[in-house]
What we know:
This protein is an alpha/beta fold. It folds into two domains: 28-57 and 319-462, Aspartate Aminotransferase, domain 1 (Alpha-Beta Complex), CATH 3.90.1150; 65-316, Type I PLP-dependent aspartate aminotransferase-like (Major domain) (Aspartate Aminotransferase, domain 2, 3-Layer(aba) Sandwich), CATH 3.40.640.10. It contains 16 helices and twelve strands. The strands form four sheets. A five-stranded mixed sheet has the order 1-7-6-5-4, with helices on both faces. It has a three-stranded antiparallel sheet with strand order 8-10-9. The protein has a two-stranded parallel sheet with strand order 2-3. Strand 4, helix 7 and strand 5 form a beta-alpha-beta unit. Helix 8 packs across helix 9 (244-253). The longest helix is centred in the last third of the chain and has 20 residues, at 319-338. Residues 56, 58, 105-107, 130, 132-133, 188, 192, 221, 223, 261, 263, 272 line the site of ligand F0G.
Amino acid sequence: MTNQSGSKRPWAEPFRIKVVEPLKTTNAAYRSQALEEAGFNTFLLRSGDVYIDLLTDSGTSAMSDQQWAAMMTGDEAYAGSENFYQLEEAIRSAYGYRYVVPTHQGRAAEHIISRIMIKEGDIIPGNMYFTTTRLHQELAGGQFIDVIVDEAHDPDSEFPFKGNVDLDKLQGLIDRYGAERIPYVSIATSVNMAGGQPISLANLRELRELTAKYGIPIIHDMTRVAENAYFIKVREEGYRDAAISDIVLEICSLTDGATMSAKKDALVNIGGFLAVNNEEIFEEARNLVVVYEGLHTYGGMAGRDMAALAVGIGESIDEDHIRARVGQVQYLGEQLMKAGIPVVQPIGGHGVFIDAARFLPHLQQDEFPAQTLAAEIYLDSGVRAMERGIVSAGRNKKTGAHNYPRLELLRLTIPRRAYTQAHMDVVAASVNAVFRKRESIGGLRMIFEPRYLRFFQARFERGS
Ligand code: F0G
């Protein structure tokens, strides 16, 4: 990575390590048995059997000394915890939204906003689906329709803003269904399922103009907003000298409300919130949160969790932090690219996404190439990754057939501040070892499928 002054001097993590957690190493025979027991699903492995855990960046980050110190200030009052007011202030000042409802994590906020805003038969356009977000939209009676730019579905396209909305596609939906059937447009910053790809501020502004004409609000999945802001800073014209904190504020100002899984960008192990500008929606959300989460001043979080989150929000938009965080992901991506491994271009903000369809071209999509690859990498080294392909895409609600997503990806997701560059080298070596024997790898067959979000609990066996 090039440093701030533009020279190629090495860079290092902007922290030193105060507490360590030993990692367990295992041999191939042990891992083979663990994988069988887990039904070839990395979600079902025991964490103690994993060496380097790149399943997700969700709730897996290392908290800072300041966050741990804040934990000790937890005010565990049932009502009116001081930490809630700190959190509310942190959200207002970093993101600019007016009203805050805490939730235990992101999907709880998605549940509440979907219930309030969506009615049977509604259409929710968005820049690519996310699993839990879409499910809550569907459970509320809506139908998600993807309006992301075509480049997002092409792993080789180097388009710098693959998270952008295709405004013609959106206009087409408005013409076809009418604005009354579109309760909001669902916009994620740093689009997870596209490979951690950003939306540009220019696109967001155009989107705002179009939706404002029809009175359609924008609800922002801001789970990885800081990473998106970093990409805007380094890629979008006019933002090189802008502060990440200002870019984040500008993004939020172009939307009407947000759901947040604070377990990602905001550097906590648990937590989330719903934030809106509309007072009526806030009142309804404040009412619903007591049904599903807890009182509106804790919403499923302990006081100490809210305290850590208030600090984490500030740290997440620190320039050194975000540069190193995205830099580490880029570093792993470059190691893999040097070895000729097909990865989604450009490298994303929270993980490196391997194109499993090209890695294992001899497998059909219903032999689960990405699931297979996750299993093989675990077998090789104990590194755990996550399927983001046909298993994650689930089934068509009407026909019951598999959804066949154009992207069949394996995600190597990097927790924040948890691993060093040396860990990244080990991961790259393992993926490379599997790549060299790829032709001998056979597919999987699904033998158990749960009803919702099947990727979490489905079981597989060898042979398709
Ligand atoms: N939105 C996005 C973009 C996400 O990535 C996630 C979670 C959620 C919402 C839901 O938040 O887990 O706190 O309920 N993504 C995790 C992942 C699970 O591994 O990508 P949650």
